[in-house]
Automatic annotation (TrEMBL):
Residues 404-492 form a coiled coil. InterPro entries: 7TMR_DISM_rcpt_extracell_dom1, 7TMR_DISM_rcpt_extracell_dom2, Transposase_Zn_ribbon. Residues 510-553 form the Transposase zinc-ribbon domain. It comes from Pedobacter cryoconitis. The chain crosses the membrane at residues 193-215, 222-244, 256-278, 290-307, 313-334, 341-361, 373-394. This is Putative nucleic-acid-binding Zn-ribbon protein. Keywords: Coiled coil, Membrane, Transmembrane, Transmembrane helix.
Length: 635
């Protein structure tokens, strides 16, 4: 039993000793060896170690020292990321050099959106060479003029050396580091640029074709599709570095935000194209309103990010919302029986899959990141979507053409039926016209005879009408003379006889007729301004008033007359003057009040004023034969 216990204890001791010996090897950073038979190697998992400097104060001397050697963390992901945009990330890799290798090697960094990388490259003598690169530097400053970042390494020894890289970026970036031979890099780069040329060439071809269609047909769906395709190409060029290499190699500030403009334009024109292609406004008004709300919110978010917080641009996954809205709209319209939506849904299905794959990789599902296909999956899906959207547009045009041809055939059939009906009706009408023509011919003979009789009667009536016209002219002349005599007699009676107010009112029935009489009486000898003696005037603002053309003084028709500032209706004031004048001032104020229906005190006050004027102008009134009462009007 003692031996059994001894053996058990020995096994435990040996196991512990093995763990103690092997643990450094298990947990040590994996070294990548330069090998002529391996053209490229992607650093992943424990081949990369990282350290986050939240204070942004660590120097290379510190992190390369022994105190920080064990503070680095092995990457649990195939590709580590700089998720904290305010911090600095340090990465290190180990390479076992091979001086006997026949090829030259370089390190390539795939992510073109990294703002600033400081590389510390070990030398044969133990020192480090420092190189800086990133998309905040001008493109001409790169060691190799390629869309990715490349650094040549010195493979002039057989030692294992540590490479350090300091990352600082304003958006989430991937630390994709690849060891490649220069020969393999050249071959790979040529192939890559070739496929890029095919990809962007397809975008330009599709865009140009649909632009021609827009110019020819003038349907906005083609224009939105062109702008959508160009926005997609713009975004892809901004993220893969092609745009920085060929379009704005010196515009470093613009290169930091160009992708955000492309993403916004992609979402905007995708939704506008969806609305136009699927006739959403007519087929789904509420969904159309919702799309407008999404466009508005996306625009506000873009403007806020641009002017206030550009770190929001890094949340690219927000484009999932406009994509989902467009995708759902296509499914909804397709369920309603609109056939062109089938290709639309199919195209957006591929794009939806590609976007979802990228989104899941970003969330940490590393098993989905299985190489070039997953890295360029969104680009592949864009191509497929572009093809199927073109099918959707063509399908819509085909359906419209089919409907047009069907309508044209219906119109042709209807025109043929109308022509046949027209011929039948014409035949029936010709028969009836012949019958009616015969009847009319017989009746026309009777009508001609009647017309002859009517012409004779018309001649006699015309002679009588001329005689009646002459009599009417004579009667009209007599009536005018009679009316003139009546008016003259009435006016003479008013001016010199005892008439009642009703008869007086026939001559001066209202305020306008009284003012007209005043104006003729007041300015019968011509107008002269009382201020500047000017003799020219304009019509004033008040009826019958006159305004001086020189000084602008306006004189009313009642000014400087006995009616100025009186509150009595002017036609009653006229009659009161006439009554006082006719009775030679003997009529009482009580009588005036009874006749004019005015208060006795008012009649007394105004009558006294008239009687005073009569006394003052006694000599003038004796010489007047008629219209004597009018001499009392002017003051």
């Amino acid at each position: 039993m003692f031996n059994q216990f001894t053996h058990s204890l020995l096994r435990v001791f040996i196991t512990a000793l093995l763990l103690l010996v092997l643990s450094p090897a298990i947990y040590a950073q994996k070294v990548v060896t330069v090998n002529d038979h391996v053209d490229q190697h992607i650093f992943n998992f424990n081949e990369i170690e990282w350290l986050k400097d939240t204070a942004n104060k660590l120097s290379f001397e510190k992190i390369s020292g022994k105190d920080y050697e064990h503070r680095f963390t092995k990457s649990l992901k195939s590709t580590p990321q700089t998720t904290d945009l305010k911090a600095t990330y340090w990465f290190k890799i180990k390479i076992k050099h091979n001086s006997k290798a026949n090829k030259r090697y370089l390190l390539e960094f795939f992510d073109q959106t990294i703002d600033h990388v400081t590389a510390y490259l070990p030398q044969k003598n133990g020192t480090y060479e420092i190189k800086e690169f990133g998309d905040q530097f001008k493109f001409d400053q790169r060691e190799v003029h390629h869309k990715n970042f490349e650094l040549y390494i010195n493979n002039d020894n057989d030692e294992t050396q540590v490479y350090y890289f300091k990352f600082k970026s304003s958006q989430i970036s991937d630390a994709i580091i690849v060891l490649r031979s220069v020969d393999w890099f050249i071959s790979y780069a040529l192939d890559e640029y070739f496929y890029f040329g095919i990809f962007y060439g397809m975008i330009l071809v599709f865009s140009f074709y649909n632009l021609i269609m827009f110019i020819a047909i003038r349907q906005r769906q083609y224009l939105y599709y062109v702008l959508y395709n160009l926005s997609v190409g713009f975004f892809e060029m901004s993220t893969d570095g092609i745009a920085y290499q060929y379009l704005w190699s010196a515009a470093t500030a613009w290169n930091q935000i160009a992708y955000a403009f492309a993403l916004y334009a992609t979402s905007l024109f995708a939704l506008l194209f969806t609305k136009q292609l699927l006739l959403v406004k007519a087929k789904a008004p509420r969904l159309n309103q919702f799309i407008l709300y999404v466009i508005g919110i996306r625009t506000v978010l873009f403007l806020y990010s641009l002017f206030f917080d550009r770190s929001l641009f890094t949340y690219k996954f927000l484009e999932f919302i406009p994509l989902a809205v467009a995708f759902y709209t296509g499914i909804y319209i397709y369920k309603q029986g609109y056939k062109p939506a089938r290709f639309f849904v199919l195209g957006y299905s591929f794009l939806f899959i590609g976007f979802t794959l990228k989104f899941l990789i970003m969330l940490g599902f590393e098993w989905l990141n299985f190489g070039v296909i997953s890295y360029y999956s969104l680009s592949f899906c864009f191509v497929l979507e572009m093809v199927f959207l073109s099918f959707a547009i063509g399908d819509k045009v085909r359906i419209l053409k089919t409907k047009k041809e069907k309508v044209q055939r219906q119109i042709i059939r209807q025109m043929a039926e109308n022509a046949k009906l027209k011929d039948t009706l014409n035949q029936q009408l010709e028969t009836k016209v012949e019958e009616r023509t015969k009847e009319v011919f017989h009746k026309s003979l009777i009508i001609e005879a009647k017309n002859a009789e009517l012409l004779a009667v018309n001649d006699r009536l015309q002679q009588q009408a001329e005689e009646i016209s002459r009599m009417n002219v004579l009667l009209e002349q007599d009536n005018q003379e009679l009316q003139t005599n009546v008016e003259k007699v009435t006016r003479d009676r008013v001016m010199s006889a005892d008439v009642d107010f009703e008869e007086f009112s026939r001559i001066y029935p209202d305020k306008e007729s009284c003012n007209l009489f005043l104006s003729e009486l007041k300015w019968k000898d011509g107008y002269t301004c009382r201020k500047c003696k000017n003799t020219h005037f304009y019509t004033g603002h008040i009826a019958f008033s006159r305004r001086c053309s020189k000084c602008g003084y306006e004189e009313s028709v009642t000014a400087y007359t006995v009616f100025q500032n009186t509150r009595i209706p002017i036609n009653k004031a006229f009659y009161m003057i006439f009554l006082i004048y006719s009775s030679k001032g003997k009529i009482s104020s009580h009588k005036l009040a009874e006749i004019l229906n005015i208060r006795q005190s008012t009649c007394w006050t105004y009558g006294s004023k008239i009687k005073i004027l009569m006394e003052e102008r006694k000599a003038v009134l004796k010489k007047v034969s008629k219209n004597g009462w009018s001499q009392l009007v002017l003051e």
